[in-house]
Amino acid sequence: MEIFNIVELALSGLRKRLDENNIMLVQGQQGYCEPAQFTFAGGAESGDINEFFRSLNLVAPWDYKEFLLRHNGARLFEHPQYGGGIELFSLDEIRRYYVSYDYISMIPNGWYPIGSDNGDMLFIDSNQCHDRTSNYLYWTEMLFVDSAIEIEMNFERWLERILICNGAHFWDWKRETSESYYRYVKGCVDNYNT
User: pTM value?
Assistant: First the structure.
């Protein structure tokens, strides 16, 4: 069986959908459509990536390294006027959060942040980075690691799915019932009407 580089394939597929300004129209819940812009930094050097993780005594999984080699940071699904979207951190940003902001003292041993969305954080648990089939990603709301959500996948599968799902937090869908969905929608409509 041939093994594919899903990071490369997902990014290649995304580029086919972007216009000349790296923008595409995405559809969200209830048929809401808006433009989304994508910004990618240049790649990091392999030696710099290895030294970075060695210096912090952390493990970087193969698929995440593949992303960093192509893009040492990115912004996904950012509104061209209003901002927001998902930020995937550069190595410098990981160091800033992990060391300078002292996340090291607030998160489990071996975890490190690789991205955020409106204050919510995406983490890799380097203790679980054994091979390509390892599930090592966690999502926290506002750094509340006690209630972290195990995403049950690796980075390449997460990246592919976040692109397919137009930036929606697909990992929350399995916990969403019809009842909770309509209660949420009703709350949004009630807030809108007041």
Answer: 0.88
